[in-house]
Design goal:
Elements (H helix, E strand, L loop, with lengths): L6 H5 L5 H16 L1
Protein name: Pyrimidine dimer DNA glycosylase
InterPro entries: T4_endonuc_V (IPR024796)
């Protein structure tokens, strides 16, 4: 998921609980098809 993202960005990128929930929902959608 984070491959290709510069380390500087990754270091201070902290996903909010909401962002994580949205990502999980999207992944679940994709897997269901």
């Amino acid at each position: 998921m984070l491959i290709g993202i510069p380390l500087e960005w990754r270091a201070d990128w902290e996903p909010t609980a909401e962002a994580i929930a949205i990502n999980r929902a999207r992944i679940a959608e994709r897997l269901r098809r």
